[in-house]
Specification:
By secondary structure, this protein is of the alpha/beta class. The protein has helices spanning about 15-25, 30-45, 55-65, 85-90, 110-115, 135-145, 200-205, 215, 235-245, 250-275, 300-310, 340-350, 360-375; strands at about 50-55, 75-80, 95-100, 120-125, 150-155, 160, 165, 175, 190-195, 275-280, 295, 350. The protein folds into two domains: about 15-245, Aspartate Aminotransferase, domain 2, CATH 3.40.640.10; about 250-375, Aspartate Aminotransferase, domain 1 (Alpha-Beta Complex). Helix 1 packs antiparallel against helix 9 and helix 3 (about 55-65) crosses helix 7. The structure holds pyridoxal-5'-phosphate (PLP). Pyridoxal-5'-phosphate binds near residues 84, 127, 153, 155 and 179.
Length: about 375
Amino acid sequence: MNISFNKPYLTGKETEYIRQAVESSKISGDGMFTKKCHQFLESRYHFKKVLLTTSCTDALEMAAILLDIKEGDEVIAPSYSFVSTVNAFVLRGAKIVFADSEDATPNMDTDQIESLITNRTKAIVPIHYAGIACEMDKIMDIAINHNLHVVEDAAQAIDSYYNNRPLGSIGHLSAFSFHETKNVISGEGGSLVINDDKYIKRAEIIREKGTNRSAFFRGEVDKYNWVDIGSSFLPSDIIAAFLYAQLENLDKIQLKRKAIWKSYYEQLKPLSDLGHFRLPFIPDYATNNAHIFYIVCNDAKDRKGLIEHLKGNGISAVFHYLSLHSSPYYKDKHDGRNLPNADHYSDCLIRLPMFFELSEVEVQYVVDKIKAYFI
Ligand SMILES: *Cc1c(COP(=O)(O)O)cnc(C)c1O
């Protein structure tokens, strides 16, 4: 049996909606399907304002511009994350002050944040790893007490909740990804969510190359002009057409992914109880959106052995992030603190195949091969 790590799921409507977009002769940004996606996300998750972007990376770059991040500013972010989470701020000249992961989850350890704040700190950027919420009340309280902004990297967190509040609706700004490896996809794609009214107008300008073109098309100004810095962050309506077909099927996608996740969890629980590895931990305040199914091996040697064993059986299971504080680009800029939990997840976490079309038989096969490795 050959089981890939990921397989993009097509709902069947994508090409039909793309055809409609093409035939409407309006295939640049902010066409009919972009508006449908905005409305869907705003009404389902009570986001104040959604703007589709060409990627989550772009949405994070917009966030860094919106917060006026400048040379010398500091941004607190987890080391166990994707480069885009921090690159967006580094591009504006910020220094990244890395937080360690919690012991129980790869998410940032909120107990550390306060000690990392200086008078140069401008923002905290938590990521909800595997779509499992960070401890947002605590992060928001710290941010409010110190007058900081919070940007949620919600790239993996569609349709997941923190104490009944949708992820992405809590920070001042947040960013989602619709990359083909995520739950809901458009090939490449993302969105910026703006939960603080005061950023809405400027976000539209930054997204439209620094012009007030959006206001012009709404008839609010009679010419459009260069009014700020910006770039071309908006996707073609062809991308939005694809995305809309996915969003319409969000509940179906989530139901299936959660069933796969649960099946892995239940079947692997006995092995985990024997101490062979750790299963994902979901705190009481968090829901699971079944974005990733991961296990944490006891050491790097076990992980390497297991990945090779699975590969030998046709199964593609993969490790994930390498701690950013010790990356070739940042290790000389990092302040030297050890971040042992981030390193542990870097060395020991494995993601198992997880996609819509993964069958129960395939899950069983993966579980059997993991059992065979340990027992
Ligand atoms: C996928 C991902 C990104 C980047 O998303 P793109 O849409 O590919 O730019 C950023 N942060 C995290 C945590 C991610 O998982």
